[in-house]
Structure formats: structure tokens, C-alpha cells
Amino acid sequence: xxxxxxxxxxxxxxxxxxxxxxxxxxxxxxxxxxxxxxxxxxxxxxxxxxxxxxxxxxxxxxxxxxxxxxxxxxxxxxxxxxxxxxxxxxxxxxxxxxxxxxxxxxxxxxxxxxxxxxxxxxxxxxxxxxxxxxxxxxxxxxxxxxxxxxxxxxxxxxxxxxxxxxxxxxxxxxxxxxxxxxxxxxxxxxxxxxxxxxxxxxxxxxxxxxxxxxxxxxxxxxxxxxxxxxxxxxxxxxxxxxxxxxxxxxxxxxxxxxxxxxxxxxxxxxxxxxxxxxxxxxxxxxxxxxxxxxxxxxxxxxxxxxxxxxxxxxxxxxxxxxxxxxxxxxxxxxxxxxxxxxxxxxxxxxxxxxxxxxxxxxxxxxxxxxxxxxxxxxxxxxxxxxxxxxxxxxxxxxxxxxxxxxxxxx
Length: 410
Ligand SMILES: O=C(O)[C@H](O)CO
Fold this sequence. Notes:
6-stranded mixed β-sheet; binds (2R)-2,3-dihydroxypropanoic acid; 12 strands; MOFRL_protein; transferase; alpha/beta; glycerate kinase, domain 1; 16 helices; 19% strand; Rossmann fold; 6-stranded parallel β-sheet
């Protein structure tokens, strides 16, 4: 089989292993929701598939529900559930309208009732009732996404500008109990940061929020600065939280498939979090060191890199990572690097990620495309498109960070 076919198999197996279906059912098994009303709120890119699993396991018990997911991520009707699609990564009018529906749903519940709250990454944009105007929120979100801030830094700011993030949605549910099930898309599974922690006590501080503004030179109006000085709730008494899956599953499934395909696999890390370009160069450097191997090798890294936008091109962190690796593997033989977002979307593109091999640099050069220039312009999408290096999966139904793999085939 070709390197490309191997990559395809590894990607499919890893994403399938990270689908939330079984994990959500396991998290709900043995739980007793009788006694009062059970309503469901699901947010994030995996909201629909998490809600589907909950509906299957709690058949007939859920009296009403709201699912808020990204455009194109809903896959059909669910019993007693209203499904909304909205903007990501920048919230839009549909995010706000759908969030109002979720808030209405949890108002007037009693202490006997339960809100089953299914949280996945992407929730920060999709689930939002802003404390500032739409224009201000979109402007600040845009600055945060472009400046190279980590997701923890971004969400430290976001939760202070919101009436539902930073534990505030759980407060709105009171006196009802909130049973929340979380699919993690942040390294280390910080529950107060995943989807900006709408049902988890905040652990960040206003001092940190203001330091982030300084660090990245964000331009903020005075009303925002005032909001950043207000601490979200640090304690919540009505919430139980279960975490159901993370990037580790992706890595372990990739490792298993690599082994089945004849590679000797090694998981390098499940917490890759540097600049995308650096991660790509690092994987290429590993390939260089092992170029004389007689055995097929696979090096696996899970996590989520960042891109500091400088250019006006189109791309995503996975595409940048792969393209950056193409330079360093160009003189080797039978080597490939690929990187994909488990949710099926890499940056603001329709691709899940990028694939390169040792021929990519040469093929790009024949088309007059310089890797260096493309990376400077953050335009990996068009370069990879020119050499058939884009990976497409469509929305996958899960969201547990990214998988990056180096294959050396012998
Ligand atoms: O929605 C978000 O905030 C990110 O996906 C991290 O969870």
C-alpha cells in the first residue's frame, strides 16, 4: 500500500475511535435522572453526535432539548430536541439566538429537575450570550484568533465577556442540577476552559485576563477592560461533571493502526502545543535522524499547535504543520507527514488537514510555488491543493484536537 493509503487508514481509524457515541453512553450508564424533568443542552462541534448517543441511552426520558452545533454538523432530527447550527470560530446571530433558546429551556426548573449538558469544543463560539455588542465581541474574537494566543488564553478573555461562559450557565440553571458530560479538545482537559467552561467553576483570574491583553497588544474598548476585571463564579454547587474522551484516544488508535500496517509506532506526545511550523520541522528532523532505518517507523503526536497569522492566505494549523515538514523530508525516501483536526475542519477551510511526502517540495517547485513564501503568507491550503495534499473528511462528529504523524516506510 502507498504511504498515502496508509495515512488514510490511520486517519479513519483514529477518528472512528474518538467518536463520542460509546463514551457518552458509558458516562450516562447507571445514572438516575428520575424524580424530575430531564432536559438536554448540547453545545459544540460534537453536540449532535453526543446528543444522539444520549437520546439512545435515555430513550423517552428527555422531555425537551436544544443542540447547538456548527454549520453542516447536524445530521438529522432527534426526538424532542431542537437543533440549531451557528457560527464558528466567530459567533454569529444564530449562536446568540440558539443560546437564548437554551437559556429559556433551563429557566423555571426546580431542584428535582436535571439539565443534561453535553459539552464539546467549538462551544465557545456556538454558545454565547455576550455582555458586549456583537460587533465588539466579533472584533475581539478576531484579534484573539489571529494573535497566536493559546486556547486557554483566548477563553480566559472570552468567559469574562459572556453571560453563559465561566460557570454562568450552570448558575442560570439553578436550582436544577446540571449533569455535564465533556469531550475534551484542550490539552490536559482543563474543564474550566473547554468551551470556556459554561458549567465549571472558573480557575482563571482577572489579573491573567489583563496580562493576556498586554501580552498580545489587543486593542480593547473601556467597557471590555471593565468586564475583564470581574471574576466569574469560582464555586458551583449544582454541577456534576464527567469527562469522556480526549486526544489520547486518537493517538492510541493511530498507534494500533500503524502497527497493523507494519510500522513500529511510537507516541511522541499527546500534548503537542507549539507553533505549527515548528512542529512540522521537528517531525522532519526526526525523519532525517532515522533515514537509515531498515524497519518502517511511525511517530505520532497528538495535541493542537498554533499559528501566528502574518499573511492573508488560506490555511489551518494542520496544513501549515504538514507543509513545513515538506521542506525537511525532501531529500529522504518514502517518508510522509500528515496532520488532521479530528473535527474535520482545519482553520477556516473545508479541509481537515494536510499530507506531504518527500516528493512534495519538488512538485511544488515545478509549479513555481515556494514553501517559504507560502508559509509566510499563511497560504498552505492553496499550495497543498496544487499537489493533491489536502485531506478531506467532512464534519466527523467528534472534536478531540489534532493528530500529526510521521511515516517512514521500508
Ligand atoms: O470552544 C472552545 O473554546 C474550544 O474548542 C476549546 O474547547
